[in-house]
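Usage example:
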Amino acid sequence: MSQKIPVAVLAATGTVGQRFVSLLEDHPWFEVTVVTASERSAGKRYAEAVNWVIPGEIPSSVADLVVEPTENPVEIIGNRAKLVFSALPSNAAREVEPDLPAAGYVLASNASALRMEPDIPLLIPDINAHHLSLIADQQAGRGWPGVVVTSPNCAVSSFVFPLKALNDAFGVTQAHVVTMQAISGAGYPGVASFDILDNVIPFIKGEESKVETEPLKILGIVQDGQVVPAGFPVSAQVNRVPVMDGHLAAMSFGLKSRASLDDVKAAIANYKALDSVRALPSSPEQLIIVREEEDRPQPRRDRDAQNGMAISVGRIQPCSVMDYKLVVLVHNTLRGAAGGAILNAELLAAEGYLGEKLQLQEK
Amino acid sequence: MSQKIPVAVLAATGTVGQRFVSLLEDHPWFEVTVVTASERSAGKRYAEAVNWVIPGEIPSSVADLVVEPTENPVEIIGNRAKLVFSALPSNAAREVEPDLPAAGYVLASNASALRMEPDIPLLIPDINAHHLSLIADQQAGRGWPGVVVTSPNCAVSSFVFPLKALNDAFGVTQAHVVTMQAISGAGYPGVASFDILDNVIPFIKGEESKVETEPLKILGIVQDGQVVPAGFPVSAQVNRVPVMDGHLAAMSFGLKSRASLDDVKAAIANYKALDSVRALPSSPEQLIIVREEEDRPQPRRDRDAQNGMAISVGRIQPCSVMDYKLVVLVHNTLRGAAGGAILNAELLAAEGYLGEKLQLQEK
Amino acid sequence: MSQKIPVAVLAATGTVGQRFVSLLEDHPWFEVTVVTASERSAGKRYAEAVNWVIPGEIPSSVADLVVEPTENPVEIIGNRAKLVFSALPSNAAREVEPDLPAAGYVLASNASALRMEPDIPLLIPDINAHHLSLIADQQAGRGWPGVVVTSPNCAVSSFVFPLKALNDAFGVTQAHVVTMQAISGAGYPGVASFDILDNVIPFIKGEESKVETEPLKILGIVQDGQVVPAGFPVSAQVNRVPVMDGHLAAMSFGLKSRASLDDVKAAIANYKALDSVRALPSSPEQLIIVREEEDRPQPRRDRDAQNGMAISVGRIQPCSVMDYKLVVLVHNTLRGAAGGAILNAELLAAEGYLGEKLQLQEK
Amino acid sequence: MSQKIPVAVLAATGTVGQRFVSLLEDHPWFEVTVVTASERSAGKRYAEAVNWVIPGEIPSSVADLVVEPTENPVEIIGNRAKLVFSALPSNAAREVEPDLPAAGYVLASNASALRMEPDIPLLIPDINAHHLSLIADQQAGRGWPGVVVTSPNCAVSSFVFPLKALNDAFGVTQAHVVTMQAISGAGYPGVASFDILDNVIPFIKGEESKVETEPLKILGIVQDGQVVPAGFPVSAQVNRVPVMDGHLAAMSFGLKSRASLDDVKAAIANYKALDSVRALPSSPEQLIIVREEEDRPQPRRDRDAQNGMAISVGRIQPCSVMDYKLVVLVHNTLRGAAGGAILNAELLAAEGYLGEKLQLQEK
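Running the assembly step on the lines above writes:
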């Protein structure tokens, strides 16, 4: 009999849902026991309901699970799972996600609905594991026996890593970001080929405001049970490019303290998560890979670094308008979506939110 | 017998050379009489020597011209042309281009070799036709009976248009540009498909320094027979994207005077070239097209506006780091290369540098 | 006052509908007066209702037309148009198209619904203008005062041209076709970029049976008021490739009579439509362009030949399994859809089905 | 100390060379000890000399090897390797490859130079392991103490698998193949993006004759120390498509014996290599994967099946011109190039051509 923690995946047939299912195959701590999708898919075997579009085959352990409807997840899940991953679209998430912590579940959501609530961690374990301190107030304030943590927008999950390293080392005064985002970020069917072949689209609905606000919450400090966001402005211009996976961002930034180019490179290259985070199963061995080649990082060549959980940074150079500029890449559906949410859940498990603290492996 | 001005095209078999040949078919003033290429192609009919890769068929008037070697263009051209277009690579341009004005030819070059010489116009007629005043000093200082003007880098030919409009109206204090450039900018064979399919390359050799310096010369003032460049910093991060034609740039900028969003839009939309420039055969009816759709301009959909001679601007919005930001698009091998150089030559012809001033048409 | 024939375009906001609207701008004979679309768009100005995704801008003459609902086209159109173009999807076409000829309209349909009806011409003027003789029986048999003609599937519109030339010259015994079809053939949004970037899809729903049957009707003979299809087998394997426009087909075929390679090339290159067809406004000057380069035709380089109304053929060579093989290209949304249907209507107009025969120009 | 067989990789810096180096990292039997490249790279560390363009990082065990010149490989390799993999271009291969078996080495070549020599196996272990019987005559006839085997063209490595299964089961009378080949098949820089973006090229130099002749040798029988090729005609039309990896082929074929659709599917799905071959380290668990989905196989989704060593077949259906048709996919640089050659070498090792027979693992 398996001793793993049983988990439910909401919206398991979408592209992020598929990534959850794929990444959770053979996960050392978690095991998928419940998959939900829209009414239309309910009652079918997962393998029949899903239009599997991500790499690899459908994990056999999930292929035969019967898909259940996403409405009333609390009723559906019952005691068959303790941990819930949500890949719900924003509207659905807003409606049903709060029910889960209210009913005692631990919810790691990839949806945007609850991200900016001041008592809900917008969590990247490698950056702001200390935001877990919000949970006590979240539970007290809302009367929730359960917990919810959220993971950020996929484009944010790129540049916020070097930004954290820089802010810790020198203080950041401002940041300007232009993204070039992969089509997988829009899910399936998502971006029409008619729109994106031989083209770039300088617009993604609702994205720029997320890219400008979420990093500040992530880098914020916890005060009186709420996050006080970081105080510098972030400006974003987002673009969709004909690339399958991997969001690239060109970032310029100002620093409070004087720093040489070498200082900047070193601060980014040497940035490390807490040891307790680095010991989590999905943590990359090397978090930020600084590339010295003049033409890297590139989406196709660097997105899979460290199983898609590392961040690649390159072209760090002085900027004549702000202080420095660089290019940063994330695998948007691994670190930037399902992988990030799983890492969040691993942190919760390690910290005892899912029962007894789990024994971490040496890395 | 044709009354058109006979012209030579140097490096006529490359991709920019092909654009010259294509655009000059049926040109009202100019007629191609001499085409040159590398030693390897010399002696062949143009149609045999060229690997025609641009849209349309080889103009029949040029197909049967015999390709001549590019070395010693003065000797080669003789009195068979008065006007010379150069699509030479930088090194070759540096060597042979100065010989042409020295021998009395009028040279409109698309090469980078002479662009930054202080007495040589880096010319965009719609922006700095007054830089032609450099020519008198150029001729006097160098003892040249002929003339040379240059056209800017193809990526510069995008954002420098709104920058000019903004600088005229409000004064620009700084500009930050991230480009997403088409593969045709690299010529043929240029970018390997192995590098760019499903990918973005955040680097183009030598490009960022051109993008940061050329706009300042273009927007500079003429003083004592030299250009004094504009005084604000431009910072650039350039990227290659899997797009055939059309360079897109995301630009943020600061302004000296206070300006509302409507002021900014109006300044850009209403910017006009001099009437004398607008009357040139290759001038677009509308120079800058401001798109109000939230997702435009896009390379594939907007690059051909006004026969590829217009600039498309969109997504003008406030920037939380600088004052405003926008997105701008140019057809890189039309306005941004051969079309721009032909417009330059038309201005020279209209101003009498190629003999009697030509009669301009009403538009 | 315009003397042009007023026309209605059904489903005018789809991608084929947009091509109709675009091609009919400045058409010498026809003028768009009615545009229809789904209920959702009805009541809006065309420019507001349409998501214009094809090259060029919305024709100003149509931009301000109010979109009307497609249901009950007879009632909607009234006496505001005589000629109707249909870009309806198959199901809608099946329901409403027969009403139009029944009410006296001349309908040139691009839909598949009525294509295989034995008394309805599946018309390519350059190939089977004589199938118009079906109309008398169509009208008599169905009691229709009006007329309907249909144009074939876009992939068929490629290889059926050389097939016609070959069948006329030597008799064809069999043909095997593998298509590589552009994404524009699926309309908008059509093919998801998630499916087609860095990929080929060896399947298009319902396509193979059309590709195998329609050519035989087109090449059939008219007997007793019905088409008797050509008697040889056509086998098709269809594929979707990441190309915007232009369907490429690799075809092998057997011939009844012995023919040398030169005979085959000559038969294809010299094939000509009837003079009366060649005089139609949308007829290409050269119908089939035989390319001698070893690597042509190619979709991006050849699709726009003759305004997208020519067929390009290349790589004609012996086949060790059948007799010969070749590669053939059509612009799928011009000749292969809207352009083909307009040519059909021009033929009907020239033959007097829309009133007095129109005067044809010399070409 | 390593007990592995030391191997040299000729042309190790090209794209196929990189695949060799990548696949041989942690190979259970082989270990790269010598890497060669052109004069220009000689003397550099491999990591410096190579422009690493394939997925993953450069194996650390090879990164520090000093690249040696490819000329005179016998002299260069000396006794530092027993087994040699060649990724040489055809011309270079023709010159230097014969020296290697003549000097006692075991050469597994991916080059085309020696493929069609009647006494040299054109080897696919899963298909014609019995062709190793040629080696005795090869050695006797040429006086070679060493051995050479070759692996076929990458496009052949797709359809020849189902062809073998069909020929064994029913006899094949003819086959017609249209390929859609990935750009990685052309190496680096290979296909210009200027040629292939938004395009298909219906031509690959020299490819069609290889695709038509090599399968017949592979399926031939050995008689008197020579291969007698299979006797049916294969006709090929090859195309380059904008896909990174994975050659897709649409094949129609005739059969000697009557076979139902189910018979055909079963013959393909149940085809198995010899047990001795299936036990080789690089053999896939399942050789031919028959997909039942109507739209598979697809290059991006199926190329990596079984580490890129499986063949995916789909869309098996009756053909109205020949008997049946299907679609087949191979990963062109894994099974179709480096992976295939490594499997060949494994077979040679297992059969004792590299010293004592190696112990095979159970699968």
